[in-house]
Amino acid sequence: MGTTLDSGSQPQEDGGARLLTFHLRKSWTRFGPRVGRTTLEALREECTTGISTDETSSVTFDTPNILVGTSRGVVPHLSRDHCNSADAIRWINVPFESFLEQSPPVPTLQKGPDPLHSFLGFDKRKHIVSLCLRDPMDTREMPPNGNTYVSALCMRGVRKITISDWREYVYELKPDVMFALNDTPFTPPPYSQKRVTKSIERSISWLADMLRPLKRSVLPCSPPSTPGRLSQHPLNVFVSMAGGTSIPAREAFAYSLSEEPYGPDLEAVKPIKRLDDGVVGYSFHVATLRGSVPKPLGPRRRNQPNGVFQQESPNMPLQDAGKLLEVPTPENGDVCTSPPLPSSIAESPVSPDIALLLQASLRHLPEEKLRLVTGVRSPLEMLKLIRDVGADIFDADLAIAAANVGVALDFMFPLSPDHGPSEEGKKKDMGHNLYDHVYAHQYGRLSDCLAGAAESQSQFPAPLPICPCIACSPCSPASHILHSRVDVQSHEGETDRNGNVMYGLPRSRGYLHHLLHTHEMSAHAMLVAHNLAVLDRFLSGVRDLLWGGDGNDIGEGEDRVTRFAVEVNRFEGVYDESMEVLCVAKKCWREVDLARGKGRLGREKEKQASIEAGGI
């Protein structure tokens, strides 16, 4: 099932592994909304007394929650100090393909107990750092994968990363969480049954290879003794659920995870009895399931607007799974065999929606494992996946992409009683396009739903939650670098008599409008921090409603599920699901971005001529 044991994947000496546990605090149905708690804790190697936890380096957060993506290990527009001070950033994902232009990749040269944390500068007491090979939001067309390698994209072109290479990188960098390789086709659909079958077989084979034990175990003790830990492997492995848009194919992949291997396959993954026993969670990359054709391979920068906000409905049809048998697939060698797929894999005449696809993958798998979803298009889609699938973690690319085009997100959940559409028959935008000139002289805070820490709650009709971002609640650092004795006078009055930090007034929309039009980088930094805080507060409202922390006595069990479904419908009726504000902001961003540099004078003359010709 796997390749031969590679001698180069021996782990370095460290001070102990960090195991991810997930406790399902409240769940009503298999695919209904649920609340859990995720903990990453360091384990000490004490075999005589069992495994003890080191609470000083543990990271804990409640779910549903967010995962923040990076570009070359950097959260777009934010510094390390911003990341360490932001409460919304707890789980950080690093696509490793951006480091593959060098051989060996530069991060693998970092030594010490926590190579990835040390190289990227993240605080292991606050952040979970995960490692994946490919950026889950990059859906550009790519060369096909092989039986023993995956095509990855770096700044110098496409690289072929073998299974043993990925295994070696993981054991050298020691990420808190790693994503097993999967064979996702990035070529124009539809895909033949042979291609779908090959994708499932490769993904299963590559997962089994990653779960192979080392000659020398990372932990001398067995992980299952930790409460809430279902995985029997020292690595925290997430598996991407394969099968594309075919429900039978997804069920076949889930069956391959839960069945017990036999013969050489069983010996290769011992002491694991089933592949599912070696994973801590399931990931779903819905960006690859959309009905759009993969874009041609070309330059792409993550800190610029991407195609996730194209003008279309979030409920757009998925890739057509019908008539797959008529589409030929080039031969690409033989792969290891696995249980045959159902004959109905290519007979689905109608493409199911995303919720049904995710349910098909999870139907026969344990409920007590994390469910991670990337590529969501809107907050409403998050709510629907929580309601219909029970998703736990969402990527925050929505917030970062909105900040790229100058949009300050502004929404909340659940809605207050007086919340309604802005005009008769028109839904509210989920943010403010600060490139628009209507904001040039608006001096209010960025969000109508959240208040700044320095603002008095008495000025609002009802108390508003506090936005802790650097734009809404700016504050000075607790300590300052003094270059002379007179510098002390510059920092007087920034703390009260009790030593508490004094917050400043929120940054206004007009101020951010000015920064955006003058191409100031601080504008995007404040917008990213604000949008992440809004998204974090949005999911905090979901948890409070389901868990009972909202202060409303609405009963337990089905009463809270019913209330949640009602609030989702209210949210859908108030806010614009198509996120049209982002499409308009993207056009404004392009106009401002072009209004500088070489050729600006010629463009301005053409623009003025067109205005005069139109009689404006």
UniProtKB/TrEMBL annotation:
<feature type="compositionally biased region" description="Polar residues">
    <location>
        <begin position="304"/>
        <end position="315"/>
    </location>
</feature>
<feature type="domain" description="tRNA-guanine(15) transglycosylase-like">
    <location>
        <begin position="55"/>
        <end position="259"/>
    </location>
</feature>
<dbReference type="Pfam" id="PF01702">
    <property type="entry name" value="TGT"/>
</dbReference>
<dbReference type="InterPro" id="IPR036511">
    <property type="entry name" value="TGT-like_sf"/>
</dbReference>
<feature type="region of interest" description="Disordered">
    <location>
        <begin position="293"/>
        <end position="315"/>
    </location>
</feature>
<dbReference type="GO" id="GO:0006400">
    <property type="term" value="P:tRNA modification"/>
</dbReference>
<protein>
    <recommendedName>
        <fullName>tRNA-guanine(15) transglycosylase-like domain-containing protein</fullName>
    </recommendedName>
</protein>
<dbReference type="InterPro" id="IPR050852">
    <property type="entry name" value="Queuine_tRNA-ribosyltrfase"/>
</dbReference>
<dbReference type="InterPro" id="IPR002616">
    <property type="entry name" value="tRNA_ribo_trans-like"/>
</dbReference>
